[in-house]
Structures
1.
Amino acid sequence: MPAATVHVMAGVITDKRGRVLLARRGAGRELAGLWEFPGGKVEAGESPEAALARELAEELGIEVEVGAPVMVVPHRTPSRLLRLDVRRIHSWRGTPKGCEGQGLAWVQPEKLGRYDMPAPDLPVVAALLQPDHCLVTPLPVDDVAWLAALQAALDGGVRRVQLRLPGLEPARRDALRAQALACCSAAGAQAFVNGDPAFAREAGVGLHLPSAMLRMCRERPVGADQPLSASCHDEAELEHAQALGCDFAILGPVRPTASHPGQPGIGWDRFEQLRARSSLPLYAIGGLAPDDVATARGHGAQGIAAIRGLWPGAQA
Ligand SMILES: Nc1nc2c([nH]c(=O)n2[C@H]2C[C@H](O)[C@@H](COP(=O)(O)OP(=O)(O)OP(=O)(O)O)O2)c(=O)[nH]1
Ligand SMILES: [Mg+2]
């Protein structure tokens, strides 16, 4: 790692009721007053797991067994690159106390958004609460088969769906869209219509902005209660998506894809560079499938977005 990289380990500690422990950074420290997942910097020669166990013993007075990775968030500031490496805490002994005088709070997961946290924590909170798959629909050949495949994807657990139906004759598109929205709603999945703000406003559903449309938007094109997402390819688009109040962005293509022949992938290194300059939740897209979720999380992604990779019966 370059000299200006700081590796920070942080733990997601949950109690029997599923509440998450946050600690408040004390006065006089950097980011004072903000709430964080307890943890701290890895010291020279220390393994990440040992560092996390040491930090939690020092800061909370508990003895922990470090569990599964949640995600790694690279975050660039003018002076350094932070790598916030978040793990679940599998089990712990003792009663957490603010050993350094810091305030502690046990927080219901759905209330985490009410706590003011450092920018790199925002994607982590999203990763704890929101789906790690986002299906983007392929163009239908046969409408009945397409609806059956959508239903199968929902039955398989997909909870975010971007309805992308470019070039369909309007009457056919409207009928298919209405049925697809009904299926998503019945399954409790969040649906986003691609590139049709007027329809999204009228139907009260989510809107996905293709990057060309994102660049044209000067203000949030749907109400604050309607989900909004955008496709992004560079830093300027990510900044704009964040300024508009997008709930998340889809970034890629990470690998070359069948749906965009001839377009090279940006790769995970470039994905991380862009991730490090934004605090939006980001789905990685481009030649990815459910097997890639852990890798994506390791590069700071919320998870994967895919057409073929999430479409039942498609060749991944
Ligand atoms: N522990 C923790 N640190 C975070 C989070 N989010 C975030 O941006 N950070 C930043 C704040 C700090 O710049 C850095 C962690 O350093 P720290 O000051 O807690 O380090 P430490 O516990 O080893 O304490 P110190 O001895 O360096 O004072 O990471 C988070 O959720 N948890
Ligand atoms: Mg600390």
2.
Amino acid sequence: MREVRAAFARFWPLTRGDRAWLVLIVGCVVVAALAETAAILLFARLTDHALAAGSLAAFWGPAGAWLGVAAIGAAVGYLGNSLAVWTAERFVLRLRAGVFRHVQDLPPDFFQRHRRGDLVERLTGDVEAIEQMVVSGAVGTVSAVFSAVFYAAAALWLRWDLALVTFVLAPLLLVAARHFSGRIGQAAKEERTADGAITSVVEESLGNMVLTQAYNRRYAEDLRLDREARAWMRASVRGARASEMYEQVVEVVETLCVLVVIGLGAWEISQGRMSLGRLLAFAAFLGYLYPPIRSLGGLGLTLTAATAGAERIQEVLDTEPAVTEPAEPVPAWPVRGRVHFQGASFRYPGAERDSLRDVTFTAGPGELVIVTGPSGAGKSTLSRLLTRFYDPTAGVIRLDGVPLPDMSLEFLRENVALLPQETLILRGTIRENIECGRPGASRADIEGAARDAAAHDFVSALPDGYDTRIAPGTATLSGGQLQRVAIARAMLRAAPVLVLDEPTAGLDSIAARRVVRPLRRLMAGRTTIMITHDLSLAPDADRILVVDGGRLLEAGTHDELLARGCAYARLAMPESGSPVTRSA
Ligand SMILES: Nc1ncnc2c1ncn2[C@@H]1O[C@H](COP(=O)(O)OP(=O)(O)OP(=O)(O)O)[C@@H](O)[C@H]1O
């Protein structure tokens, strides 16, 4: 129960803004319970005065009142339930948006540590589980408590002694609920986890269909899904069994109570101390009293199950973003594009060694700096620091002399455009894909950027032109064409600093050659930090940095470094011995 309270305290603040509605819902619940109580009392009157006395005249009064009370109860019940659903869904909307916003601020290593399918499940199924706990849970508890109090008061009013006898048995229901909640909670936790694992396996498998088919991995994939699905099935069956057992125990306890009442009632009637109408009304109150008590017990179980989802969401919310916004960001200025790394070191969270160590270099406005080195040297890490996915663990990085953490993230990313290794494509039209470089850009600007990126011709040749729909993994365009769409997007962004991470990786030599010219146009007049193994542009670079093992081994121009004959010369001169020459 401690977990339930903790989770409730964590998410209850999200109901702010809807609390007045919650009060109104509770009001409706109370009126509906009162109407139900009045209806049962009217039923007792009807039985004693109209049925037992055989008088039709005595029928109309209570019957009319009963109908009126039932109509009020129905109207208020409808209003309360509709409002409850509306409030609950608003809560889900707000919570999902909040978690999603938080996830979007998390660093790349978070997404490497968590399987995508599991995160999807947290943002969908688990969010709904919290709703059950906070809104439905709160409304359900209040409703059950009020109903139980009214019916109990009415039962006491009818026959306090009989009522007390039956109340003695009621706590048995709560004991049973307590007994089963642990089992159901554990099963729910396993079920939520298995749900996440199933979504992950399906998602990974669909994304990897070529590998599955080409390497005959269907059986292995089937096994993977089967393993997770069986874990889910076991947890699900265990949870359902515990719930069912709880239901049946409750049935037996209730039957016991009803039999005790009928037995005592029969004795009372035989002694002439009770009318049949009163006994029936009394039994009816019991019939009404037990469901709220039962649902209070059941609510405990639902809440325990919902806590499993809540804990998974809390885990996401408790993950801190790797970088924070400055409290008072430096006001925006026209960026010239001077980038300065000063003694920058970085270690990934949880890693055992630094991925970058004491890196110092400068890229002046309009300069091209090429960063090269073997795989795993720390080159992409450098681009992640410059675009502030992470802050260096030591040292400082400046843009025009201003430390990156002193400016707003939005300003930094407006001025430092990243063209990452993988071509990032949004689901939408080609025009939308280019436009996201500068939202609101005119048609002419978008097409101008596409022209500069050598994309206009092939886009125009498509039947739907710029309105052709593409998506991640699209087959409509080739890798090189997609890369040129990405270059057009970066062109449109017109940021003074460009970070290109392996812009020609994954392209064959012809496609790679095709993107070089647009890349040159993109780089013109901008500070460009290009991370690459492909040294064809190296002779044009103002500086080349050779990184290995996280350290900056060498820095200089192509000619200087070749003349030095060390690491760069080995990278630049293939076995044939012919060095890379200045490209046309
Ligand atoms: N999220 C992470 N957690 C821990 N270590 C990481 C993480 N990401 C990268 N690394 C490690 O940091 C080092 C540098 O990685 P980085 O991606 O910067 O290399 P790279 O030079 O860009 O390699 P490549 O040319 O293959 O892309 C590598 O040893 C890598 O294993």
